[in-house]
Write the C-alpha cells for this entry.
Amino acid sequence: MDHQQEKSNAIPSAAAIASDERMSIEVVLEALAEDLDDRQLREAVDRLKQELAKGKSLDAALESIQGFAPRYLVGMLRAATTSEQLSAVCNSFAQLRDSSERAWRTLRSLLVYPLVMLIVLTAVSLLLSYVLLPHFEEMYTEFDLPLPAATESILNGLPVMPWAMIVAMAAWLAVILAPGIFGVGYSMRNSLPLLGRMFSSISQQQLAATLSSFVGLRIPLAAALEYTGDLLDDRSLGRATHRVAEQVERGISLEEAMAGSRAFDRSLTTIAGWGERRSQLASGLALAADMFANRRQQRLVLIRRLVPPIALVAVASGIAAAAAALMMPLVKLMGSLTG
C-alpha cells in the first residue's frame, strides 16, 4: 500500500538530524519549526530561543512562554529529556504533518472533479437556455405544435438550470471549505456520499497517530489527549478529544470516555480500549492509524474507479434526454408532413 511505502521511504526530518548530531536545542527547535511550517510554532520557537539566549534553563524558558506556546510543544520538550527521545519525536511530528498533507492534497484533487462537472453542466445549460431554446420555442409557436409533457418540462425547467447549478456549486464549496475557514460544519462534510468517509478516515488516522506519538513519549494520557486535540485539523474532533481528556483526568477509562462520543470511530475506540488494558496503547493506536490509512486508500481507489464513469454517463444521459425532448415535436411534425 502507498502509506506503507511512505513509511519505508521516510526521510529523517531536519529536526531529527539536528538532534542526532547533538546540536543545541535552539538549532533543533529551528529545524522543527521549518519541518512543521506552522506560524504559531515559529513564533513560539523564536520566543523560546530569546529566553534561552538570556541564560535561562530549558524548564525556566518553557515556564516563561507558558500560555503563549502551543501546549504540545511545551509538553513534548518537557517529556523528551534525552537527545534520542527528542530526535524520535521531531521525526514523528514531521512525518505526521507530511502524511496529513499528502492525504489532504489527494483529497483536494478529488474534490476538483465534481466542481469541474458542475461548471460544465452550468455552461451547457446556459448554452441550451439562452442560445438554442429560443429558436425551438419560435418554431413550436410558428407551427402551432402540440408539446409533449417532456418537452414542456424542458422548456420550463431549463432556464432555471444554470442558477440551480450555481447554487449547487456554492453549496458544494461551502460544505467543503467552511470547516477549514470557520471551524464548523465538520459533521456535514463527513456525511457526504463517498467523500465523507475519506474526510473521516484522514481525521481518525491523524488522531490515532498523533496520540500514539505522545503516549510513546510516556506523557500522561490526559495531557497526551490535550496535546493531540490541539494538533488535529478537524476542530470538531479536537474538541471531542479535549472532552475525553477531561474525563480521563477524572479517572474514567479511555475506552469509556471515547465510547460516549459519536466523534470517534468505533474501531478506534475498541483498539484504544484493548491497548489501554494491556499497557500497549501506543502500539495499538499506531495499528489503528495504519488501519485508517488502508481504509482511506481503498475508498480512494473506489472513488477513482466509480465517480468518473458514473458522472460522464449521468451528464451524457441528461443532455441526450433534453435533446430528445426538444426534438420530439419536430419529429412528429415531419412524420405528419411525410404521411
